[in-house]
Amino acid sequence: MAEPVRDRWAAWLLERRHGGDPEDLKATMEFLTPVRDRVLKNAALTGGETLLDIGAGGGLIAFGALELVGEEGRVIFSDISQDLLDHSRSLAREMGVLDRCEFVRASADDLSALEDASVDAVTTRSVLIYVKDKRRAFEEFHRVLKPGGRLSIFEPINRFNSPNHPSDGSIFMGYDAEPIQDLARSVWAVYERRQPPDEDPMLDFDERHLFDCAEEAGFEEIYLYYEARRAPNAAVAAGWGWAHRWEILLKSSSNPRAPTLEEAMAEALTQEEAERFTAHLRPLVERNENTARHAVAYLRALR
Ligand SMILES: C[S@@+](CC[C@H](N)C(=O)[O-])C[C@H]1O[C@@H](n2cnc3c(N)ncnc32)[C@H](O)[C@@H]1O
User: What pTM was estimated for this model as a whole?
Assistant: First the structure.
């Protein structure tokens, strides 16, 4: 790692998402690379253009865009995390592309650091799920785009996943938990206390809401591509390699606000209960015996 990890966004993206395991990071990247390519394709960048990547994180989309905008183009990395902006700046320096990159600390719903009609394209991947005021964010995307500019978004639709972890604990992360239902219910309650299903910005929207926000913000053309499935090992099939090994599952969390499984167990269970919980769940995790729902949306729009 180039520099010490400090804020929770950086800690999650650079460490906790993959339980600190390099192989799992690789598996995550195998899932993310085609997503990145599709987000960039939908942004339809050409040489010399300026792209604003909102919630740029570790620069997945933004660094990928540099080649497309070419030597004359520019990429603006924006994020609320100063640590992640600093991380990307160091990488850009190492890569010798610093002169084509800008770094702006801003929230998706307040881009006042950027002028009206100043960019050719806006991209954002897995960021709106953390933003409470999504309508305002779309208004901001519309405002900073030039007329004819393109918006390209990817978001997981986590509301669709609720049958993977019902509050009664009968299923836990898509695994059959009936024999330990009481324990699974207590552990899941830790996750729900941290991210109340009715209020959390990760769960208070779906793909239609994204479409409506784009329409209300004034985008002329809007295209939504929704993908949903219920399948065995959906998490693994989607490339989230962490699901296949217990130790990594224990140490990873699904988003920056979520506890790791280890933390949730420590909060909810006694030592004896944790052993019972582990004795049931661990073999299922190691054998990948889960069936889970998973949905994502790609949206592209023209100003
Ligand atoms: C899941 S990461 C995605 C990072 C990157 N877009 C990618 O594709 O890898 C979410 C990012 O959104 C940023 N973020 C969270 N809330 C935000 C907000 N309100 N405005 C802008 N960025 C935000 C986080 O700091 C983090 O970098």
Answer: 0.89
